[in-house]
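Reader question, answered in our methods column.
A reader sent in the components of a multi-part assembly and asked whether the whole thing could be modeled at once rather than chain by chain. We filled in our standard form and ran it. Here is what they sent:
COMPLEX SIZE: two components
ENTRIES:
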Amino acid sequence: MFGNHAGFIFAAYGIAILVIAALFVWIVVDGRSQRRQLADLESRGVRRRSERSADGGTA
Amino acid sequence: MRLIDYANPTRFLGLSATLLPWLAAVTAITFAVGLYMVFFVAPADYQQGETVKIMYIHVPFAWLSMFCYMTMAASAFGTLVWRHPLADVSAKCAAPIGAAFTFLALATGSLWGKPMWGTWWVWDARLTSVLVLFIMYLGLIALQETIEDPARAAKASAILTLVGVVNIPIIKFSVDWWNTLHQPSSVFRMGGSTIATSMLVPLLVMAVAFTLLFLVFHLMAMRNEILRRRIRAMRMIEAAGAE
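And here is the structure of the entire assembly that came back:
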């Protein structure tokens, strides 16, 4: 179906899928890591300046 | 509400959270349509045979390698002129995605070149200028990671990004200015496209799909970077409180 150069076609699509999948996994894992660290800081009562000023600096 | 108001990081997080699932769904549908057209509708080329299927990913990767860089350049301009925090977030997050697309443009081009030209690589103006673009992406990523203070890193990388814009017209017009093994432009050119409609339509659908994929990845990465900067600020507040 893909002629004499099927290996080149599969290799091109294969490397594209591999790199894009790796990029996606990296972004998702990074996002989870950031959300986990943020939740950890918030659970310890650490607040940003803007949040503290918004609630009257009670935190 | 003005458009600039959406550039507030908190508002951006809310808006992007709403937008991302829809954008991801449209991207998946566009890819499904594009890949169906590539593998079941588009004809084989009369000279290249089925090897032309590599074109449907190579050309969008090449376009996006330049599109990503222009996104970074526009963001760098926003960083230097308006000092907008989201502009730097945008520039920083586009760099790894641009590097990945540029690498894929080079790799798929090489895999297309070997059976068609008889060589994996040649130091002609188009290939070399795209390789320079890839190295520039790596340099910008390294620069952003080397300077710890985000404000200083933003300024330095914005200046370097804008200097590097000179490479984009060189890439685009390299096939016209010099004799290259790489073929001249065949889609966006004076006098119209030279590609048959049966191949042009799947190519454009795939280009739209990859552009949407870039937008999805870019929005996701920008959300991560905003959280990373919030975490940094909160850690500094925590450290200051502990002293």
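What stands out: Chain B has a mean pLDDT of 91. Residues 18-43+53-174+194-242 of chain B form one domain.
Send us your own complexes using the same form.
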